[in-house]
Amino acid sequence: MPNQARPGLAQRRLLRCGFASTTKPRVLAALGSKSIDFNWSIIMTLWRGCLLSLALTLYCQTIQASECSAQDFQGCKTCDELENAIDYRQPDAGDYYRGAQWNGLFASYVNNCPLIAGRLIHEGANPASGGPEGSMILAVASKWPHDDEEINTVFAAILLASGIDEKTKVDAPQNYSTKKTLKKNSWIEVDYDSILNLFDR
Question: CA-based diameter of the chain, in Å?
Answer without folding.
Answer: 92
